[in-house]
Model the fold of this input.
Amino acid sequence: AGGLRYNNFHTTAVCSPTRAALKSGRNHHTVNMAFITEMATGLPGATGQIPNATAPLAETLRLNGYATAAFGKWHETAAWEASVAGPFDRWPTHQGFDKFYGFIGGETNQWAPFLYDGTAVVELPDDPDYHFMADMTDKAVAWIQYQKALTPQKPSFIYFAPGATHAPHHVPKEWIARWQGKFDQGWDRLREETLARQIKLGIVPPGTQLAPKPPAIRDWDTLSADEKRLFTRQAEVFAAFAEYTDHEIGRMLKAFDAVGQADNTMVVYIAGDNGTSGEGGANGMFNEYTYFNGVQETVAQMLPKIDQWGGPETYPHMASGWAVGFDSPFGWMKQVPSDFGGTRNGMVMSWPKGIKAKNEIRTQFGHVIDVAPTILEAIGLPEPTVVNGTPQIPMEGTSLAYTFADAKSKERHTTQYFEVAGNRAIYHNGWFARTIHRAPWEAKPRRTLDDNTAWQLYDTRADFSLASDLASKNPRKLAELQAVFLREAEKHHVLPMDDRVFERMDGAAVGRPDLMAGRTSLTLAEGMTGMMEGVIVNVKNRSKTITAELDVPQQGAANGTIIAQGGRFGGWSLYVKDGVPAYGYNFLGLQQSSIVANRPLAPGKSTVKFDFAYDGGGPGKGGLGTLFVNGEKVGEGRIEHTQAGIFSADETADVGIDLGTPVVEAIGSEAKSKFNGHIPQVTIEVRK
Done:
């Protein structure tokens, strides 16, 4: 109500690319972020490493006297650089921010996040009511107050980026209760109701039609009673997470009022870095990591957890039907930049002192690359040509400041390409041409990249929702726009296009750097903790041996974690319980396997070894595990299933403790899981 609503503003349809484009003012391929950092390749425009020639807005502001801070999600540091070994060039505090408090990867457990303050790991409080959303807000409020108390003459810049509503959908129960019964009508009626509200609000033109939903999204009326019960709960939790987040954002914004700066603060509020996610597939997930490991959860498996949904016992996502429902009036979702359901995120810009218009709508085309130029123009700073000695690639966005005073001003951002993993489109002078190359729930693309037979054409000036394909009626215009796409793709390093998705999870196969490249062993020691998955030797889909040198207490039984990787929703742990060594494998929280020794450890020095002989025959297979103490076999057992793709985006590998959530519930995590002896050395060895 106090600013301008932009109903024609766009992201890139995926998180890392959107964030890198937003903060630099350049297209995501220009800053090497073709896809998320964990799926970087060796191809131009896709390396996952932001170049010095595209300095972020925050660095320009910092060098011009601004205090700068980032809170929440980052997801722009190359996966192989996210360790204590660095380099730290692409960490927040080397990307223009004096202060960073948040998580480095793409998502985090809101109840038990793995956080950094700058580059130092944060020790979480022992608080059963802890939630990261409230924590990051507290830290932001304190920072705002500190700045005005200590350096009132300095302007400030904040990047406030909640992990919401990205999965996992974690939210306190009292917020979930507020939404009970609000989605019983299902996603089909929800789309209709939402469109009617949008038209009434004036943010969608009268006469707009609902775009066709993907054939894979079932009609709500065809679902079983159990499916409806589970799916409505998923939506209630998602909505509660969104409302809780908005509440905390409001609490942060009130801090500017408290320090007398509300009228003089420009707020750019972008509702998400992509459309709603359809990665939950047909049924949703109690554990989102099943998606990344190619495992489909069933309704029968999830229903017993319905009352826990959104709590610490779950790591949930929702059924893909809700993605279409919440992206009304569009037809697609996240990962699909070839549809506005993937890219058109609502944006509000408010600046009481600088924008006289209030509670108005702006319809000019906008994109995240326009935000940095807008801020520079608003505060009167020129775009730098050299930053820290490096000549700069010019910003590719167009300032939106021309829209502040005049709702009818002529659109200036007239051409924009979109592309992620082969899903691609082009906006040009009101026309939009696109091809749907792959749905988020599809493991493989629908056709080859050189097949141009499935392109569609829309006139966005008369078709807000992309409901009426004009390709057959105007093939000449379609051909013209296809040529424009190729021209823009060549200019901005989109070519060669790469439509691999899950294949990119194997860094060696796609040519990205790997801290463990060529190594088959890694020796660690007590105190080495917080190692993300991208910086430790990969034990998935192969045989391994873990050898630990232990110093067992002379008094009392040995207890605690020797080494663990992952947590409650997938991982493995070599541990000691009541003096007895054991190995536990947690398959996606769906199946627990334990191999326990037949005797306890004696006091003093011991060598515990666990060997896993992988069955082979493809990814995600099982194998035989054998446990040894001082060279003697003390236990053996089968592990029927292993995780093929990823253990976790934010759970870590730790020696002598299990940080975050526990791999083995009986051992626990954090301080409870700390080994009560000493671990001079642990060696992980892998073999084919």
